[in-house]
Design brief:
The chain is an alpha/beta fold. It contains seven helices and eight strands; from the N terminus they run αααββαβαβαββββα.
């Protein structure tokens, strides 16, 4: 067993694996590589969506967005990978994406689907401060003021999955616009069990479902207790929508 210059054991790694370890950092830092990968992922997402016709009972996203526009679509981490392909034609939408380097690819994919991307974190802080969160919330509020819808991941990156943070509730309070809990699922999927959020990779040639919950409004004068109640309301509504989406695609009565 040999050791590389960083002190890591290479063991019996194959030549291909050793080559990947050597080139993955330069690839990750290459703008050209990111754009090529974003184009590939965009094609795959569109293909998966096209080959998963809606199951009976799936909601009409366009109708819900028209009825509540402009609104804030709430999604869960790990359950949202297929969501850009379900954006109705002509729907103007802005999305918050983490400022981390790892999330840059997500931003590039969203831009290819026509999204306006605001970089920041909607995370733990009630005001959205930190990691550019305040700036991102301001950008999203401006998008809502201009009539665009907004899409936002409700739970905190690497926090407790399926528990809404206060960022999305803060945006609803300062904008006066409703939160629409939204979940989507496909009957054929791969769950990455070791990921913190149990990321779901949607697969082609099955059926899909989208569930949109009732709009949630947050009063402009909401105090800390009311903000916490609304945070729990978003959590519960998103979890119900998620369960219903999986029930439809899995044929569970």
């Amino acid at each position: 067993m040999s050791t590389n210059v960083s002190g890591r054991r290479t063991g019996n790694a194959s030549p291909a694996k050793r080559l990947w370890r050597r080139i993955r950092k330069p690839l990750a830092e290459s703008r050209l590589s990111k754009n090529i990968l974003a184009a590939l992922l965009t094609t795959v997402i569109r293909f998966v969506k096209k080959t998963n016709p809606p199951a009976a009972g799936s909601h009409d996203v366009a109708a819900h967005l028209r009825e509540n526009a402009p609104s804030i679509t709430a999604l869960w981490h790990g359950q949202h990978l297929l969501s850009p392909a379900f954006n109705p034609p002509g729907n103007r939408v802005a999305a918050m994406v983490s400022r981390s380097a790892d999330a840059e690819l997500n931003a590039l994919v969203l831009e290819r689907f026509g999204f306006i991307v605001a970089r920041g974190s909607g995370g733990r802080e009630s005001s959205g401060n930190g990691k550019g969160g305040a700036r991102a919330l301001i950008a999203l509020k401006r998008a809502l003021d201009d009539g665009s819808n907004v899409a936002m991941i409700a739970d905190v990156p690497h926090g407790t999955p399926r528990q809404s943070g206060l960022g999305i509730v803060t945006l609803a309070r300062i904008s006066g616009r409703p939160i629409l809990p939204m979940a989507m699922a496909t009957s054929r999927r791969k769950v990455l069990e070791r990921s913190w959020d149990k990321t779901v990779i949607n697969l082609p040639f099955g059926r899909s479902a989208i569930i949109v919950g009732e709009p949630i409004f947050v009063p402009a004068d909401a105090d800390d207790d009311e903000m916490e109640r609304k945070r729990r309301e978003v959590t519960d509504a998103l979890n119900r929508a998620t369960q219903e989406a999986y029930r439809l695609v899995d044929g569970v009565q």
